């Protein structure tokens, strides 16, 4: 009997319960769907997804099929073509992911078929970690303790690379993977292979993890794992990462694992509060405080394009535009600048990151923005306002990061600061106080 493996955020053969289940009774039909929502992404992000699926197609011996259209139509069509009574998939928990899988389940059910879930993109599925009274955690540190106590399954056995039947495609991955930037460091397709990502994890754990706790906030140094992108597409599972790091039994590994837990915490928050994808969980600023109109739009474009006159902010935004990634410390600085210096709502920044980031994770993105804005769960206080200049001095002391992305820094071509940070900080604090009095 043939079952369908619906590829979602799990583009891998290793540690993939949905794929292993699909192969239990015979070769699986592997299908990914190029949905209309993907067309809203940046060209670079679309090209990256195509490269990821190209790699998976290679690892399945050319068997992976990629279909165009809504997921319910595409998955049902593949199930019919292969006379598959069951479709296996990893369960999603974001609002869009839930809607998508409900539509697929309904289409299959109406045709006498079944969608079965096993696994998720998380070590511990959202909603599983709860307080003793059964309620959700609202603060990260106790969540982290309970998450560790809950634990997670060992990695699933590897799937059979020969255990597939060929699924026809109507999407040309080779064409979509071409982004037209030969100098793009992500363009080398060998870097997208699943085996290379496991090597990347092993190299990090064997070396740079010892520097992680002390140097992870330095954008001028290479002290992070660079696993956020493969985690976002499911080329490696966090359970695999945690299983490998836990063998080190070191303080550095524990710190690294706690950062993985933030990803799980944010997914848990969004699971309990779907409105957090668009609304502030704890509004702290009066609505009339946000900048609007053409001046606000011009300010947003200056921020987006890296033309603010604040070198660390501009370096981060240019790095994002050029690579689709940005160092985590710099993400906090650029987000704080947008919300608390330019007085633009966090939702505008989150929407741009959704389009541009290669490592986009919906819960992580929305709740990280809320963390900086002071409106989310266990968020930084609104009155914590990052000073772009002092952050640069502390975390990029030799200006290596800034000078890489802002080569005209010391020339007349570089703009003057678009705002007075000290003055805008006072405006934000006054808005916060006014909001506090209104609550």
Automatic annotation (TrEMBL):
Protein name: Deoxyribodipyrimidine photo-lyase
Gene Ontology molecular function: any one: FAD binding
Keyword Flavoprotein: yes
GO biological-process terms attached to the record: nucleobase-containing compound metabolic process; response to light stimulus; response to stress
UniProt-annotated site: Electron transfer via tryptophanyl radical, residues: 290, 346, 369
Cofactor(s) needed by this chain: FAD
Entry's family note: Belongs to the DNA photolyase family.
Binding residues for FAD: 212, 224-228, 256, 359-361
Taxonomy, superkingdom: Bacteria
Keyword Lyase: yes
Photolyase/cryptochrome alpha/beta domain: residues covered: 1-123
InterPro entries the record matches: Crypto/Photolyase_FAD-like_sf, Crypto/Photolyase_N_sf, Cryptochr/Photolyase_FAD-bd, Cryptochrome/DNA_photolyase_1, DNA_photolyase_1_CS_C, DNA_photolyase_N, Rossmann-like_a/b/a_fold
Alphabetized UniProt keyword annotations: Chromophore, FAD, Flavoprotein, Lyase
């Amino acid at each position: 009997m043939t079952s369908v493996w619906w590829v979602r955020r799990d583009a891998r053969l290793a540690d993939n319960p949905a794929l292993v289940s699909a192969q239990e009774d015979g070769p699986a039909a592997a299908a990914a769907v190029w949905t209309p929502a993907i067309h809203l992404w940046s060209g670079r992000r679309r090209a990256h997804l195509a490269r990821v699926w190209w790699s998976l197609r290679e690892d399945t011996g050319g068997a992976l099929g990629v279909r165009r259209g809504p997921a319910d139509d595409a998955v049902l069509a593949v199930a019919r073509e292969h006379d598959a009574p069951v479709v296996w998939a990893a369960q999603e928990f974001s609002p869009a992911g839930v809607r998508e899988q409900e539509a697929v389940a309904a289409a299959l059910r109406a045709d006498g078929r079944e969608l079965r879930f096993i696994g998720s993109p998380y070590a511990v599925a959202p909603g599983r970690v709860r307080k003793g009274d059964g309620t959700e955690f609202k603060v990260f540190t106790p969540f982290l303790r309970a998450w560790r106590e809950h634990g997670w399954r060992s990695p699933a056995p590897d799937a059979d690379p020969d255990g597939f039947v060929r699924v026809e495609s109507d999407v040309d991955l080779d064409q979509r993977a071409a982004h037209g930037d030969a100098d793009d460091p992500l363009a080398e397709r060998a870097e997208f292979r699943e085996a290379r990502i496991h090597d990347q994890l092993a190299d990090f754990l064997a070396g740079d993890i010892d520097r992680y706790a002390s140097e992870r906030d330095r954008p001028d140094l290479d002290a992070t794992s660079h696993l956020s992108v493969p985690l976002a597409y499911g080329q490696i599972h966090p359970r695999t990462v945690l299983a490998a790091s836990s063998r080190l039994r070191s303080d550095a590994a524990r710190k690294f694992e706690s950062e993985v837990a933030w990803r799980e915490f944010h997914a848990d928050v969004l699971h309990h509060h779907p409105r957090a994808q668009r609304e502030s969980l704890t509004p702290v600023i009066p609505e009339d405080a946000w900048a609007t109109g053409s001046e606000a739009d011009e300010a947003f474009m200056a921020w987006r394009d890296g033309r603010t006159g604040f070198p660390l902010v501009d370096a981060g935004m240019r790095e994002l535009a050029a690579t689709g990634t940005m160092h985590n410390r710099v993400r906090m600085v650029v987000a704080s600048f947008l919300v608390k210096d330019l007085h633009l709502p966090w939702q505008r920044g989150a929407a741009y990151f959704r389009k541009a980031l290669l490592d986009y994770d919906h819960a992580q993105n929305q709740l990280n923005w809320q963390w900086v804005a002071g409106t989310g769960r266990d968020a930084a206080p609104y009155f914590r306002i990052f000073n772009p200049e002092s952050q640069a001095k502390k975390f990029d002391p030799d200006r290596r990061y800034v000078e890489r992305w802002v080569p005209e820094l010391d020339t007349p071509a570089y703009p003057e600061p678009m705002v007075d940070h000290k003055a805008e900080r006072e405006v934000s604090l006054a808005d916060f106080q006014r909001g506090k009095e209104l609550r």
